[in-house]
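Bug: token stream looks shifted between consecutive jobs. Job 1:
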Amino acid sequence: MGIDPAVPNQARVYDYLLGGKDNYAADRAAVDEVLVAVPDARRMARANRAFAMRAVTVLAQAGVRQFIDLGTGIPTSPSVHEVARRADPAARVVYVDHDPVVQAHNEAKLASDRGVTTVLADIRRPELVIGHREVQRLIDFTEPVGVLCVATLHLVRDEDDPAGIMARFRDRMAPGSHLVVSQFCTDSDPAATATLHEVDAGTPVETYFRSADEIHGFFDGLELLAPGLVSVDEWRPDVPEAPTQLKILGGVGRKA
């Protein structure tokens, strides 16, 4: 798969931020460099993950029984299928990522579950994702589906048209479907933002911060569930938390 353990990998970096063990020294060094200047970065990552799981809970309670997780990353418990199946043990989930590292971890963990699959695909090509045989096997696009794009779009370049990517997924979603998105916002602390960009400069990764208006555009044509587009730690939190230096906005939109 051409994995170079000496080069930080975004999925492994995020795994380390979340307290996982599927990472290498280069990933830990990159995170530790960020933590010097942005000590709450680990809490930010966990707040983002918690937002995603709360959103899945809301969708499952609303009757959504099939999910597509775009840019899933290395498996972390609880995962989307674990949370969704608290409402319905038959809930179906497709995990999508373009990273072979993620693919290998997901295949090892999910190989025996016919109701969950992992797909190696690039979300920048929605038609190939939607048309993939494993997606077609598990997802019925005539029925409501929950599409998650959590902490993924800030890795997509402006020239790759993230708003257009989301529009193509929205167009295939049936009424009653939901879109869950989180993305780094330009309202973040400037010094923390600069530090992240400095760390990115030594890796193949570049992080793109977008305005609240740009992020809101990812939900065009959808009804945003309360409380709207807010910091992920403010989206229906179980316990109130202080804001972090790096701000990730999150929201859940419903297709009428």
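Job 2, same session, no restart:
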Amino acid sequence: MSPISTTATLLKRLRVQANLTQLQLGERIGVTKASISAYEKGKAHPSLPILTKLAQEFHQSIDDLRGGELPARPPGYAAAPPREPSPPPLQEVAYLAAAGQPAFVAALAGAGVAPACAQLPLVRVPDVPGLPELAGALVAEVEDSALAPLLAPRARVLATLVPAPEWPHLPPGLYCLAYRSSFAIRRLKENTLLQHGLLLLHTDGPHGGGTYPVRAEDLRAVWQVQCAIFAPLR
């Protein structure tokens, strides 16, 4: 067998014995799952730096990996237990506390979304699969009880920025909105921007809900709420 094929055979055997997936092994040595797959199929040969990392990972010599011979297992050998999957990566997102919302809206009016967000502190949130791009996203703190009992004061929501051309087509749902000198987390009940230049926002609240309009010319920025990341116990 060629050196590539013997390395491929041994690499797969070592990985399986260690209860590692191709993805997990790739993460441990700094290559992709596709690279590990190519090594194991003999379609590619690991470079010397990668071969060195593989040798360290499996406690083998580089010569053993190149030769394809698996040393005899010592008495009492047991395969390593399955490793816990790696936690999802974290991303840093601007954090807007309730107390800072008036100043944030003022900064929006003067500089725009990106510079205003750049002045906010950052929090780390999981990279949740299926969420839209987090550039321009916010973690915003709920200030009032307008969405109670769904969201109480001090709850925090992760919301993604909606470009202005998409505002006339916003579906009903929960949104963070900056308009006039206000910042609010509200339920969009009806979007009539195309017909009447208005968004109709709804409050639930403990004392009954109500609907009020926001004019298109007063809107400064809109974020769509994706999920609650912290909600206080009631």
